[in-house]
Amino acid sequence: MSAISSNKPYRVGRSKTGLGLFATKPIKKGAKIIRYFGPLLDSRKKKDDAIENKYLFELNDRWTIDGSIRANVARYINHACRPNAESDVKPRKRKVFIRAIKNIEPGDEINYDYGTDYFKAYLKPIGCKCAACERKRKKKRAEARAERQRLKEKAERKVRRKAEKLAKQGAGKKAGNGAKATRKPNGAAKGGNGRLANGHDRASA
Ligand SMILES: [Zn+2]
Fold this sequence. Notes:
Elements: H1 3-7, E1 10-15, E2 18-23, E3 32-36, E4 40-42, H2 46-49, E5 56-58, E6 63-66, E7 78-79, E8 85-90, E9 95-100, E10 109-112, H3 116-123, H4 131-198, H5 200-204
Parallel strand pairs: 7-10
Antiparallel strand pairs: 1-2, 2-10, 3-9, 4-6, 5-6, 8-9
Zinc ion binds near residues 81, 128, 132 and 133.
């Protein structure tokens, strides 16, 4: 690493999605961090139109920066839906700078919003992995888990209530049956007894 590059407030490092650009020094809100650069493509030239890669940065209807060259370290900056930097586009100068929109601390990953077109084309199909989207996904997963748990408990309560009801009914039925079963002979016995009592056998006995 040259002295110049070590003066820079960033380094390339491993991020969740591969490589990313990380702050190595505090970067003040509003500060230019790095230039996004590469050959300029002219949409009026057919050969330029054929170039297709993920690092194309459209300046306006005519000019696009092909940022896929190695020297363009800014190409390592990942997209974030709630970024700490932005792309500051100067179409007339045909230049793009990445500028801090928050105070960035050493160790923070530097991100900017790639814009709707890129998001739709490249990120939506695979799911955006930025911190904000990860948090959203985590929250959704937790909510889904809580909802599943709630439904499970509801179903269990229902089953329990039904079982209790059945048990009660069963017990009642059994008790009823039992009562009937015992009442009959009892009744019969009573009746018998009564009859017997009414009879002369016992009186005589
Ligand atoms: Zn996102």
